[in-house]
Every structure is written in structure tokens, then in C-alpha cells.
Amino acid sequence: MTDDPAPELDLDALRREGLLPAPGTETAAHDGTGRVELSFTVEDSGGAPPSHRAVRVPPGVTVFDSASWNGIAIDSTCGGHGTCHKCKVRVEGSTPISRHDVRTFSREQLDDGWRLACLLQATRDLQVAVPPLTTRPKAATVGVGRQVILRPAVQKRYVELDEPSLTDQRSDLQRLLDAIDDLEPRPDLHALRRLPTVLRQADHKVTAVVVDEALVDVEPGDTTDQRYAIAFDLGTTTVVATLLDLALGTPVAVASMLNRQQPFGGDVITRISATMMDPDALPRLQRAAADTLVELAAQVCKEGEVDPAQVYEVAVAGNATMTALVLGIDPEPLGMAPFVMVAAQPPSVLASEIGLELHPRARALFFPALGAYVGGDIVAGMLATGMDRDKRTRLFVDVGTNCEIVLSDGERILATAAPAGPAFEGGAIKCGMRAAEGAIEVVRLGGADDPVQLGVIGDVEPMGLCGSGLVDAVAELVRVGLLDASGRFVPDEQAPIVAPALADRLTRIGEERVFVLHRPHPEAGPEESVVLSQRDVRELQFAKAAISTGWTLLLEELGLEHRDVQQVLMAGSFGSYISPASAVRIGLVPTLPVLRIVSAGNVAGEGAKMALLSIRERAGAAALLEEVTYVELSDRTDFNDRFVEQLSF
Amino acid sequence: MTDDPAPELDLDALRREGLLPAPGTETAAHDGTGRVELSFTVEDSGGAPPSHRAVRVPPGVTVFDSASWNGIAIDSTCGGHGTCHKCKVRVEGSTPISRHDVRTFSREQLDDGWRLACLLQATRDLQVAVPPLTTRPKAATVGVGRQVILRPAVQKRYVELDEPSLTDQRSDLQRLLDAIDDLEPRPDLHALRRLPTVLRQADHKVTAVVVDEALVDVEPGDTTDQRYAIAFDLGTTTVVATLLDLALGTPVAVASMLNRQQPFGGDVITRISATMMDPDALPRLQRAAADTLVELAAQVCKEGEVDPAQVYEVAVAGNATMTALVLGIDPEPLGMAPFVMVAAQPPSVLASEIGLELHPRARALFFPALGAYVGGDIVAGMLATGMDRDKRTRLFVDVGTNCEIVLSDGERILATAAPAGPAFEGGAIKCGMRAAEGAIEVVRLGGADDPVQLGVIGDVEPMGLCGSGLVDAVAELVRVGLLDASGRFVPDEQAPIVAPALADRLTRIGEERVFVLHRPHPEAGPEESVVLSQRDVRELQFAKAAISTGWTLLLEELGLEHRDVQQVLMAGSFGSYISPASAVRIGLVPTLPVLRIVSAGNVAGEGAKMALLSIRERAGAAALLEEVTYVELSDRTDFNDRFVEQLSF
């Protein structure tokens, strides 16, 4: 009794004896490097030969999640909580037996390798046999070609209960829970308040509404078909809402509008500054965000003809600042070094706590963030693009004032943020404007008949240049030789030689050289025209250098070269519009065949939809926090050297 | 792959091989019968010889709880959540190894039987060695001689954190949680809103406030000594509040008042009826209960000079109707057969949801109920009296309009409710009144000098008869022979023979025979006097018969005789005042030596205090739900026969 127990042991010996559960059960136990391979053999219920599929996941992920994240369906109604006992698989070799396994399988079956997939963690390579499905699961395609097996947090169960009697005095709650024994929710007070009345008015034929672990309501009759959720992409500039039918997995209505926080400033830094100047600014910014969400929710519910009281959950994907502001959390530490978040994973709150009037107990889900400048919107985007579920080396770039960069080599994932400045949003650009009607978004130079071809949003008279037009213009000027590799316009005398049809457009406003993209009338001087100035080119150079320095350093961290990148995903409302050829030409992305550069669209919104459609995907988003290594650039001594190297085209 | 898994297995074989965890991990797995014995050997830190103690608990209870419930201290700071890794014990024989054991002990220590007590379930008799304590735990004596080791749900931790830097960008939350690693709370939004500001204003020297699983606040500086809670005994008639200092385990202030629901009726049935007549009655009853709690909370905080914002938790012990009403739940199903509760365990809510203005995230805890008429007040009472932790055969009787009866033989526990009617509260009694000033509460007959001795509340002129006076009067009249065993006054001609000094007091009002207890003046007729009527005796007979039928049937269920009962606990504001001798004489309780009949006092309030002082005791209250068998009397065919048998004295 006198030997003081000290923490030392032979883990491997314990594992060999089956005494030690999988290490993945311990939080943050694995170091994010190395994966295990699961080889699934999926039997077909129609009698076709079994199909085979190998997937790689971080150690500790359950077999159920590994399958689910890769679109491989395994029977389940509880969604992986160990309560429905349906996700039966057979694995080869010795694996731990959970107490639910003991309740589900015979001794012979346990010896034969049968286990519940949701409780079995993959800690080594496994061969997994999946029996034929007893019910065909619904799936939806969202994100970048991601197949999501529907298993929303919002579940409804219609039940017809026995009336209570003196020989069956179970409480109302117990009677209900006994009838939905694949779920084990805790009741909200709201649901308990409704339960006795609704049960008796509806002759004990009711629908239980469960969100995640909570029984939030009980509704008379069968309302199982009516369950909805709203995915919000809470952008600094634009906010998009998608109303989802959770029973079908399909979008019902979409609406977007400018974030009502705009009057406080166009980017996150100006909004953070506002809260530092004025103690009233935080509540006002919070209200502005709430008003935006409320208006969009009303729009999509109206358009979809859905009762807001049947919206039981919302997911919000936003950057760290937008997330803090809508939750009423002071964003100040995000705005200054050392750039600290209050919490990587915001708490799950009631939708009413962020101002939404949906079902009174609707939940609001926020995405976790990897850092102050790689926020929940990027985690949602990683989910939508499957950054953690692809063997290829892929680069994800969300271009904006703050540019988020994620690199995966199929084993490890790195993320960082690069301060690109406002150039891509039209800020600090002479004729810059947002991507709205009248903005030049496409530029082609040097055609025989028409040396300057412009694509203009709304097909109207060009009024200015948006981000993608800026990239195009610079890329084209480099291509035709009017800009040299250092980003300088060529001397006046050289212009007619390299580009005779365009030389007259290279002129000056005051001392500064400009290239005229569009004259409102033939005699218009450069001051009246839409032009690209030498300084604009410099702004874009700085922006692209910040970004390419970011991914160059990430490539170096993983010991990779440009040519190792197999796919580039351009994300965000701006990134999706950039011409891949132009992006390559100015060096914004590594030099790749353009077909490997994919416009990924609004991936944050897609990730929010995935989280609403599947609790497994939601768990996947949380797992990214463990798996992704955040690389801080602002204290890198080599950053400035690399930055200078990256300035040239 | 074609053999469909079916649930069959050899549990014992699996247990022998250590593959099967303890069955107690499964909800409601044991049937409530049979216990296991744990023999503790507790080493003394001062060098004294070890002490030995054997306790019996239901199978599946953890070793830590088994010790804690019996006042045996084991080191722990997390309170049994498996997070602090301090509750080290050594057990003999083979027992399962948890993953926390693996992280805490060396292989040799595991072989040697070292385990964490909080994760080891007692599924068979065990020998447990407890090492000397490294810190002396605080304990408090509450309830009926119960020693409670202090471990409140409300925990405070003072920490001095490193400032963040570019090389340490942990979020504010992570930084805080890393510093209090024996707890793993989830943050409330409220705490996250306060966190960045408080951390920076207080130079990162702060106190984290944790309630149960939630981080509810962060306070500047060291506030660890300031933590309070309020225990409410929410009676139908009287409500009592006790403000507790959780750091010391001592009461700071106590206050009581009549329940403000009184205008709706004196008992639970009239209040339930009120909600059935008038749709506004439920919110008004809810508000009346809330007002009562609010006023008492203000009183005890004022008297104890405690800031209400430092009250972080309240516990409410009330019967099922009071609990439903204060939560705003329709009580109607409680009021009519088949007497069904909405939920046995009310949800944990915020104190603000029941109207209290304490710390904004203070929690309100409610006791679970065993049935519509054996509510949370009785479960609290069972906790305070240790009904489940005593080897003796004990009978617990809470006397009132509804009388709750609990019987334990040290292995099994049965509970029931008997409708005693209003006699004990002075209702339906000719000169009945509540136990207030002027009420006769003690009656002694047949003294030589003074044949009628009365004890009167407030020592004033007697105005009526309260419940304990009623019991005394009848018991004394039986003893002196003026009432026969059937409850009839003896014939007039017989009275002078059996009790010459009292015979003149046996007279009539109209046709009804009455016994005059007190004449306001020597010539006063019986109409002007305080009397006990024949009909009063009948009322008491019915009330006592209901109660004694209740415990008689419970004794039969356990195969016991009256004489097997080793202790009777008389509880409740009324029960505590009944004379044990009189209770025995009229047959309200089994025939026992009076010293074995204990007035237990306000056990509901004591139970509420215990739940606030110790999360282990709280878990014990929840465990009672599994362990106690509720016996419904209203559908027993033998009830009426027994009732008639029990009518005589």
C-alpha cells in the first residue's frame, strides 16, 4: 500500500492483450500524422457482387464515420450513438468489444468479428465487411461532388402510444421515450410543458421532435415530413441563407443580401476597430448581424412556404470575427497580435439567442475555427471540398481581403492565412468596384478585330473593375508584353512593338502610367475612362505575393514542390470567379493545367448544409480541429524574403 | 456474411475473460434486489492503524460513490468524473481496467489491483484498500446524522494564466481550461462573452466558475471563497429557504413563509382543480410559486449579506404537483386516475427560468419523483434519512393530507402513498386548526390534580386542535378507556366507572357525543368549548387506517411483521410533532419502543442541502429512482379489506 502509483506503463503490451481501448478515445491523442486504411467490402442487397472500397482516415475515427464520410452506407437509425444497434459489420483480426456489442451479438458472432461500426475505432488498417442494407439510405450531393448520407440532427418520430392505466403508470416522458428507443434524448422544459396536453389532445398519437441530444417538442399527429433547417453563410460582405428540407435532403429556397454590418466598415478589421472605439458598437453589430439573419430566414421561409416554427436548426458558417459578433463576443483580441480567439469551438446555442424566431427551441450550430484568421467558414469549406478525405495533394485558396490557404498531401493538412489586402474586393484600386452591375469581370486582349474584349456584369456600360477583372487585366497585359515580369508597364517606345493594336491605350494620368480598358466615348480622356494604373498593378502584386508566399511556405513545410499539387480549389465569392488561366499567369496559384484549377463556389454555405444534413459530417468538422495544423505566418522570419521573391509575375 | 447476427451470448464466459465491462454501466440493468458488499480498509495519514468499514450498495454503483455515500473519504478533486485521476484505490481480485486507469497506473500497479474508484463499478463483493488522504476533505453533518463529504456541483478555480503570444495562440477558453485540468466544463455563451474582457482587465488572474458540467462565468481575481447556493423545501403549505456557504458547507441564513399559492386552495388537489377550471390558473400558480421563492431568496441573501450574483445553484425539493406548478407544467394528469407524471426526473433548468434573479447562469436542480404522490420531497427525505444506506428495517412516514410511506429492509426499498385526508391538518375536524398560535398540540389525560393537561402553541388560551393534538387526544381517550377499540365513546353510564375525573367532560352537542378538552370559562357549554367529537374520532380513524394499511401492505410485500421494523422515521412539518407514544397507541405506526420512533424534522429541506453540498449525494438521489419500487395502492383488491381491519385502535 505504500508504493505511490505513478503513470508509467507498457501500452503496447496492454493493447496486445486487448486491455487497452483504442487510443482515439482519448482527446487529441494522435498527432495528426499518419492514417489508417479501411478496406470495405459492401454486400449488395439486390444480389449483385460485393463492391470494394478503400479509404484512409486518421487513427481513432470510428468505422461508422470512416464509411459515412466516404459515402459508404451502413444501416443505422440513431446516427452512431450506440443506441440503435443496427450498424453491424464484420472485421478481421482482434478488435475491442464494447458493452453494446455484448448486448447485440452472440458469443460466436463476437468471435467471428461482428461489431457495431459506430463504437469501433480504427486504430490500425482493417478489413471491414458491410452486410446488405435493410433500408436504402437517402443521400444528397452537396459541396464539391460530396455524397452525404442523410442523418440530420433533427429527427422526428411518429408514435401511437398506449394510454396510461393504473397498471401502467409510466410518466408521459417515459412512455414516449420507450416508443422511440433508438434515440435517448433529454427533454427540454419546453417539450415537458407541451407533453401532457398534446398527448391527451392527440389521443396519444404524436410526433416527437429531437434535435441532437434534446427532445425539443411533441407535436400532435404525424408531422414527420415537416422538418426544416437553414444553412447560413455569414460572410463579411454577403450573407446567404438556404432553407433545407431535412426529410428529403434538398434545398427549398435560397436568398442572399448584404451583411447589415456594412455601415461599420467593409472588412473585419474596420468592424473590430468600431468595437474598440465605441462601447455601443458591439451590441449594434450583433443586432445588425441578427437582423440580416432574421430577414433572410423570413425570405426563405416565405419563398419555400414553410412555417418558421418547423425550422428546428440552423448552421452558421462565418469567419472568426463574424462568429464573435453575431454571438455578442468582443472581437478585439482577434484584431491585434497575437490574434487570439475566445474559443475555437463556439458553444451550441438556441437560435433565439442570436435573434432568430423559428421553433422556440431551434438550435444554432457554429463551425469551429482553426485560428483567428482561418475561421469556421474555412472549416465548412474544407468539409464541403473533402480536404481531409482525398489522397491527392490539394491546395484550397479562399481569396479575399484575408486569404485563407489550406494544403493537404492526403496525410497531413496545413492551414494558414495571408493578409492580401483589399485589392481583390476592388479596394485601393483606381477604378475598383465590387462585383456588381457595371463591373468588368473578364478581360481578353489582343484579338484581331477587337483588341480589348470585356465581360461586364449585367452586360451594361462598364463602370469599373472588380477583382476577377483586375486579375484578368494584369494577366493579359503580362501575356501581351505590356507589363514586364517585375510589374512595370514597358516604356512608351516599346509598346507599339510588342502590342501595336493596344499601344494607344497605354497613356498617363498626371505622372502615373495607366492602361485604358474602356472609353465611355471615342474622345474621352483617360480621366473619364476605366483604366488600370501602375499603382493598381502594384497593389495586385502585393496581394498575390502575400498569397503565393503563404502556399509556398506550406508546400515547404510538407516538403513538396509546385508541381506536386494535383488540384487547386478556388473558393469564396471572389475566388470562384477568377479565371484559372489568369490566376496561373500572375502566379496566384501554382503552375498547373487549368483543368486542375477548380472554382469551388460558395463552399462555406455548402459545408453548413452538410452539417445540417448529417451529424457524421458535423463530427467531421469538429475532427478537423484535431487534424489540421495551423501555421502562423506573422512571426516567420523567412516570410519577408519569400514575399519579395513572390512579387514578380 | 449471411448469418444474421442475433442477440445471444454467454455473459459469464465473457466476464471471466474480462471482455465484458460491469453490467452496471447499462441503464436500469439491475432489478433493484440484492446488494453487493464493499469492505473498505482505510489507511490513516497520521500513522494510526487502518480502519475497516463494510457497506452494502446496489450492484453497479461505483466504488467512489459507495465510499462517498457512507462518509468514507477518497482523494478527488473532479468529484468522480474520471478527469482528476486522484481517487486511487487497490482492489483484490480481477476487475475491469478503464482507459483512465491505463493512463494513471503502471502495468505493475494495474496487476496489483490499483484502479480509479470513480470508474470502477461494484458488481460483486469487493475488498477495497484506500490509501491515506493527501488532503483532508471537508464534511458537513446534515439530515438525520448524515456525514456529507463536501463536493458541490459549484466549483471555483483561481488561476494565473500566461499571456498569449504569437508562439502561444491558444484561445482564451483553451488557456483557461488547460489551467484547470481536473475539470472539463463546456462553456456557457455568457462565460464566453465575459472571458476576453475579464481576462485582459484582470491581467489573466481570474476565477473560473463551474456548475456541474458548465463553465458559467469567469470573475476577476480570486473569488474562490465566495460561492453560495439555496436549498428550497417547496411545501404545499410552507416554503423554507436555506442559504448555504458551499466553501464551508454551512448554512448562512434560513427563512420560511407560507406558499403564495394558498389562495388557490390548501392542498394539491384544490390547486390542480384550479388549473382545470381556469386556463389562467396555471401561469398564476407558477408566478405565485416563483414569487415565494424570489422573496425567500431575497430574505436569506439579505440576512446572510451575500450578493445574489454569487448564488450559483438552487435545489428545489417539492412534491410532484408543486414541482410541476413551479415549472409551468400542467398538473392535471397528477390529479386524476391513473395519476401519471409528465416526467420522473424534471430537467435541470436555469434558476432564471423559475423566476429567480441570482447569478444569470445559476442552475436550478429538482429532485426526481417516484410517482404522482411520492414526489421529489420524499426522495430528498430518503436521501436525508439514508433510507438506502442502512442495514436496519426502517419505515419512513411523511404524514399529511397525502401520506408518503417508504419501507426498507436494508436490501429492498418500497414506497407508496396513502390518501389520509385533511384530518392531520385540522381539516374536517370540528375544532380543527392549523398548528398556529392557540392550537392544542399536546394532550395528557388522567393526572391526579389536573385531569386534562394541554400543551398550547404560544402558551395562550386554547382556540382549537391541531393534528398532533388530535392524535394525542384520541390516544389518551383510548388509554383512559373513554374510547373503545372500535373508536366509539363508551356509554354515558360507563364513563364514571372507567374515568371518574373525566366523565363530566363527555357530553353532547345536539345528537353528537363530544369530549370537552377546554372550557373558556367554568360555565361554558360544549358549543363554546374546544371539543373532540365522535365524528372527529372517525375522521382520524379513517386517516390512520389509510396510513397503517399502506405500511401493512408494504410489510407484507417484503414478508415482514410489525415487530421486524427497527426504526420509524416520522417526517414532514406535521409528522415531526406527533407524540411517538400516541402514534403507537392509535396504530399510526407499528408497535415499537418509543425511542425507536424518531422525529426526523424537515427532511426534504435537508435532502436539498445535501444535493447542493455533494454531487455524489445528488447521484444517490437519482439512483433511488432505480432502486425503489413504487407500489400503487389504488388498484389493490386487498386494500379495502385491510383498510377495514386497520380502522380499530
TrEMBL record, chains A, B:
InterPro entries: 2Fe-2S_ferredoxin-like_sf, 2Fe-2S_ferredoxin-type, ATPase_NBD, Beta-grasp_dom_sf, Corrinoid_activation_enz, Raco-like_middle, Raco-like_middle_sf, RACo_C. It comes from the Bacteria. CDD domains: fer2. Coiled coil: none annotated. Residues 36-134 form the 2Fe-2S ferredoxin-type domain. SUPFAM superfamilies: 2Fe-2S ferredoxin-like, Actin-like ATPase domain. PANTHER family: IRON-SULFUR CLUSTER PROTEIN (PTHR42895:SF2), IRON-SULFUR CLUSTER-BINDING PROTEIN-RELATED (PTHR42895). This is ASKHA domain-containing protein. The lineage of its organism: Bacteria, Bacillati, Actinomycetota, Actinomycetes, Propionibacteriales.
